[in-house]
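*** Backbone structure tokens ***
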Amino acid sequence: MSTSIITPNMNLIEPTVGQESGPQYALDINSSLTLIDQHDHSPGKGVEITPAGININSSLAFNNNPATGLSYESFIAGSSPTTTIQAISVAPASSINELFYTDSNGTQTQITKNGTVNATAASIPGESYDAGTFIWTQTQSALPTTPANFDIGSITLRPNTAGTTNGVTLTPPSSTVTTFGFPSYSAALTGSLPSANSFLTMSTSGNITASIPVASNYTKSTSCGTFNTSSTSLVPVTNLSITITSLGNPVIISLVPDGTGADSYVGVSNSSGDTINTTTIHVTRNSTTIYNTPLALLVRTGTGINTIGIQVPPTGITIFDAVTAGTYTYTMSMEVDSTDLVGTIQNCSLVAYEL
């Protein structure tokens, strides 16, 4: 019969009480105590400790050894990123918890942001990303929020449409161009947004401004029908008065056919005399005369010649009026120099439009 047994975990010799005698009993006890003294719960030296048997209640040092074989790490979010240098932590940022790294200077850098890698942690100095927009700032400590400058070639602008291949490419000259007396130059956007659609202009120093409004306004009067006068003082022509609000560009005023397709003209006629007679076309802007021109008629009596007249196209009366911004009323009047004359404007309209 055996007087001792061997344990499975540490090969301890356990004497059988009442059976093993003499010095052997003591030797087996001493051997087992030696093994117990050497046990560290590694394989063959005691039962291996499970997580249920561990209570980590303070920082656990790895003594400069790596933690290997991890499936993953799970962090508990603190109220703010850790101040421990060269450490990774999780803390609130925006509306969710994010991953941070605290470097050897104690600087805390956010690594993740809203489900993606935070571009602030990228290798490009001064570059960051927020809500679909990349942002570049100067990296000098005195200029942390000052936008950076770019020295770049062509740029392609694309619409914010997923998978699009459409784009507009802005390309500088292919070689050095001497402009404004310099081998290279800067073009600078200056001023504020215009109050109306405007042309872009560039000064000789490279300043780009929207200083010239794009005129899109015009006005046209109704037809004068058949207007006749034998008055020797100015008489306003029926319906030929219009009002336009200028953005500050020159205004063109013109007599035009009324669009009905009927005969349209300016004329004068006389049935007697052997003289030169005239009718005068007169245009005012807010009661100030800006146009005054005669239409002359040479009348000679003779056998079979009792009435004579002249007719000219209406578009021959076109006026360029350089004005500043404002509202202006243009009115056309007519007079003749003799009561035996008849001045006529037929089937015409007055038009004003801004350049």
Summary: Residues 218-354 form a domain with the Jelly Rolls fold (CATH 2.60.120.760). The chain is about 5% helix and 40% strand.
